[in-house]
Model the fold of this input.
Amino acid sequence: MRHTNRRLVIIVAAIAVAAVATGGALAYRQGPRTAATADAAPLSSSPTQSATTEPTRTTATPKPSSPSSGAPAGPVKTKIDLQKLTTGRAPQVAYLAGRTIRGGAGGDVKVPGTAQIQEVARLRSSALAVVTKGYGTEMLTIDSEGKVTRRTPDVTQISTTEDSTAAAYVATQLKDTGEDLPGATVYAESDSIHKVTVPGIWNTTLLGYLNGKVYFDASTTQEGTSSLYEWTPGQPAATLVKPIPKAMAVSSVGTAGSLTTLSDQNSCSSLLTVPTGKRLWRTCDYQIVGFTPDGATAIAGPIYQDGYGNGIAAVLDAKKGTLLHEWSGVFRQWVPEDDEHLLLLADNGEGTAASIVRCTISTGACELATPLAKGDLLIGA
Done:
């Protein structure tokens, strides 16, 4: 997912240090409910419809479901009430609880020291953590026993493959005053480590490590329009994919979310093919910020993302751009857990208790993946 602030900041949210109880079977895939505003329901049931119907803006009109399908047509909007959700199983991807990396493959790993933690991930049997160091950052590689085996300076962002057998990460430098310096070094690590230095670029944002290639977005001037870059680890240079401007996310099926129109009044996001830039569809209601692993669902946020948290999270059909579901609340991260589920870091505002919430894409039903509590919480890369 893309961060509007290029330097990642630790998310002060909520977590209980105790292990999360297992259980909470996940709902199977169903058709969406009728267009109504409702409270998000547990995964074991469908969202309860409200008596008040809210109009839904979409980029295309959903096709009615057949009478035999048993599912009403149209998208659903639901409001997440954290106090009403039941607790299901823990996140199946890496996440940070306090200073402990949990979830995904492998046991719990504590990040040593006291430095602020900005990013975490799993890489095979190791854990990765971006921490603050002076005005800048560094990435710690930590083994299963909690020992730091390597420190990589200036790393700000991490992205791993879905199976966590490979990772990409980006290093950018700062002046002593805290100002950005041009240029970036992009790493790819699996059985060995490859790197490429890209001089003269600004605002580098890592978008993913997909199908053996690393994707990132950057601009050639500090205030200029950014474009997509593609790099195959082992190659001596990254390739500029100029037809993809202001890339926000890249999918596994060769598409990218692009912020194609940006103005004070409104913004529009488009789904483009990589590398040609052919537009498949456009939405001026949402901003594409990610994809499920299969590329079938686009994860979206509000057109403007600013301040403490975002008020909505949504999922769109990646083929047509139609709205599948929208959740309202206070969200600071949205990460796909798999093709069927979205993880949301949710709370009720700064300083309040929070949780990682799991929501089923097809039904909108949600549950707590971590107990609602105060503390530090972060969904991993």
About this structure: The radius of gyration is 20 Å. Confidence is low (pLDDT under 50) at residues 1-36, 44-74. Residues 19 and 294 are 30 Å apart (CA to CA). The chain is about 0% helix and 45% strand.
